[in-house]
Design brief:
Elements (H helix, E strand, L loop, with lengths): L1 H21 L63 E6 L5 E3 L4 E3 L3 E7 L4 E2 L4 E3 L4 E12 L6 E6 L7 E4 L5 E11 L4 E2 L1 E5 L6 E14 L2
Antiparallel strand pairs: 1-4, 1-13, 2-13, 3-12, 5-6, 6-11, 7-10, 7-13, 8-9, 8-12
Length: about 220
């Protein structure tokens, strides 16, 4: 019995030794191989925008630069040459044209040209032809040579049929005139018209003492 207990005791002790030797930490083994990369993770939600910061303080204004040098004055242009337009024509002789009662005539009695700056007077038709559009002052004097009569007549420019002037003829060497400011156009013809309203009272007009003149205002 003692021998058996001693045997089992020896076995237990031997087992303890074996277990003790098995529980000791062995040497560190080699590092294992790196594992494969795992799948990418799901992207997280975007965060809310942050609050804007306050504006910074404005910087100081820069210093103004110096003024540039003034340029030189340009050369003055030449004045336009002024070329006035004017004319004057006269008649010649006595009783050069009849003005019978109840008739109308054109006073084409202008034989003498005193001056004509624009060469506008037509010596063939005895009419002035406008060379440039604008405003003109026109004037005409007509002298009548006749015995004492009660005839009356009208003088006017052909260009203005609303401007009618009448005057009684009561003796020899009677003058009447017409004048005014008119707007004329280039190429327009201007002449004087006389009408005797007294049927049966014939008169005549003189060249001497009669004239037709005018000038351009603008």
């Amino acid at each position: 019995m003692k021998t058996t207990f001693k045997y089992f005791g020896s076995m237990i002790f031997l087992l303890v030794l074996v277990l003790a030797s098995c529980t000791k930490e062995g040497p560190e083994g080699p590092m294992g191989a790196t594992g494969s990369i795992g799948p990418a993770g799901i992207q997280g939600e975007q965060g809310e925008p942050g609050i804007a910061g306050q504006n910074g303080v404005d910087g100081q204004d820069g210093t103004d630069g110096q003024d540039g040098i003034d340029g030189r004055n340009g050369v003055d242009g030449q004045d336009a040459e002024f070329s006035p337009t004017f004319f004057k024509v006269r008649g010649n002789g006595f009783a050069v044209k009849d003005l019978d009662g109840g008739t109308t005539i054109e006073t084409d009695i202008w034989d003498l040209v005193d001056f004509d700056s624009a060469n506008g007077f037509n010596t063939s038709t005895k009419r002035y032809v406008v060379q440039e559009t604008g405003y003109y002052f026109l004037q005409a004097y007509i002298r009548h040579s006749n015995a004492v009569t009660d005839a009356f007549f009208r003088i006017q420019f052909n260009i203005d049929r609303n401007a009618r002037y009448t005057q009684n003829v009561d003796g020899d060497d009677i003058k009447i005139n017409v004048s005014g400011i008119y707007r004329l156009t280039e190429g327009q013809e201007v002449f004087i018209v006389l009408r005797n309203f007294s049927v049966g009272s014939d008169v005549r007009i003189d060249g001497n003492g009669s004239w037709f003149e005018g000038y351009k205002i603008n």
